[in-house]
């Protein structure tokens, strides 16, 4: 909010300008973010106030409410997805740097160049090529390229939101990715496939599925995804929690859904999820799997 300056104060400032030897320091052409220096440019809009929040990691502080929620979510995934020996298959990544490249935050997720989420009014840009991550999904491709198939990404994210009861410029997210081969989707039924034979197109297709995926595979992945998240909602909010699924659009999943829960006589959006766009996997070097992904605002 801009401060209003009265005419009297303006006159006083100019009439006494020669009485002080203090001069205005030129604005720095560089900005330091987490011990790394970046050159400023016409896209730089991150403020000192926002930078001051970096590194606080409230979600890792013992007994902090965010830490308690984080641990309950992690425990749920650990217990729900185990290997033959009973060990958790999901890895947890919660110390990823919030300073990411535009390629990480947008390009790797197939977000169009003219998408409104890229605008300076929505994001905190360090400069034209880097920004403070707007979602934990920004780390998705790098972890898949590292060979991971089941993982959680937890951390603080930054968006230029108007402050209200469910929005603040700094908040926290839990993202999850699960990739599965044909054998894992169909339990080794060799007659079924996750990819349409003879169809190598990677277009979005209809709401129901992408053109490259078989309907059988999509429906099984959808069932596992929704069953997992409905179970997580009950785990966090109680067995009697009401929930519903709403069809939606995300650039990086197709089909896509939002999970809403009924809270204080209203439906509250809890998370977004969907079947991952296959080009994202292809670009990460993965051609034998399909996946589902979710993003949950843990401040809700």
Chain-wise SSE layout:
Layout: H1 7-15, E1 30-33, E2 36-39, H2 48-51, H3 65-80, E3 91-93, E4 99-101, H4 102-105, E5 125-127, E6 130-132, H5 140-145, E7 150-158, E8 170-181, H6 182-186, H7 215-237, E9 243-250, E10 253-263, E11 266-276, H8 278-283, E12 289-297
Parallel strand pairs: 3-7
Antiparallel strand pairs: 1-2, 4-6, 5-6, 7-8, 8-12, 9-10, 10-11, 11-12
Q: Spans with pLDDT under 50 lasting ≥5 residues?
A: 1-23
Widest sheet, order of strands: 3-7-8-12-11-10-9
Q: Write down the overall mean pLDDT.
A: 88
Radius of gyration: 23 Å
- Portion of residues in helices? 10-25%
> Which shape, going by the Cα principal axes?
globular
Number of domains: 1
Order of helices and strands: HEEHHEEHEEHEEHHEEEHE
CATH superfamily caption: Bira Bifunctional Protein, Domain 2
Q: Structural class, please?
A: alpha+beta
CATH class: Alpha Beta
> Number of helix segments?
8
- The CATH topology label is BirA Bifunctional Protein, domain 2
Properties at a glance:
single chain; 300 residues; alpha+beta; BirA Bifunctional Protein, domain 2; seven-stranded mixed β-sheet; three-stranded antiparallel β-sheet; 8 helices; 24% helix; 27% strand; globular; phenylalanine--tRNA ligase; ligase; ATP binding; Phenylalanyl-tRNA_Synthase; phenylalanine-tRNA ligase activity
């Amino acid at each position: 909010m801009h401060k209003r300056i009265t005419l009297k104060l303006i006159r006083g400032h100019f009439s006494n300008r020669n009485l002080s030897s203090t001069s205005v320091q030129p604005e720095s052409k560089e900005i330091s973010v987490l011990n790394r220096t970046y050159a400023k440019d016409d896209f730089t809009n991150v403020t000192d106030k926002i930078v001051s929040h970096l590194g606080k990691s409230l979600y890792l502080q013992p007994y902090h409410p965010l830490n308690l929620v984080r641990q309950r979510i992690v425990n749920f995934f650990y217990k729900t997805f185990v290997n033959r020996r009973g060990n958790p298959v999901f890895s947890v990544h919660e110390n990823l740097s919030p300073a990411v490249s535009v390629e990480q935050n947008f390009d790797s997720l197939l977000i169009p160049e003219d998408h409104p989420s890229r605008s300076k009014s929505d994001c905190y840009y360090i400069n034209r090529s880097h920004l403070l991550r707007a979602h934990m999904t920004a780390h998705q491709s790098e972890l898949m390229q590292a060979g991971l198939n089941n993982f959680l990404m937890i951390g603080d994210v930054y968006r230029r939101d108007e402050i209200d009861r469910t929005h603040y410029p700094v908040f926290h997210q839990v993202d999850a990715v699960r990739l599965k081969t044909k054998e894992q989707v169909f339990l080794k039924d060799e007659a079924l496939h996750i990819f349409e034979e003879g169809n190598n197109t990677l277009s979005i297709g209809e709401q129901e599925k992408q053109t490259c995926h078989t309907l059988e595979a999509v429906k099984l992945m959808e069932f596992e995804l929704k069953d997992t998240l409905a179970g997580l909602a009950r785990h966090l909010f109680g067995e009697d929690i009401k929930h519903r699924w709403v069809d939606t659009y995300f650039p990086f999943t197709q089909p896509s859904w939002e999970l809403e829960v009924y809270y204080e006589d209203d439906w509250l959006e809890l998370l977004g999820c969907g079947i991952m766009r296959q080009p994202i996997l292809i670009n990460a070097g993965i051609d034998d799997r399909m996946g589902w992904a979710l993003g949950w605002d843990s401040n809700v």
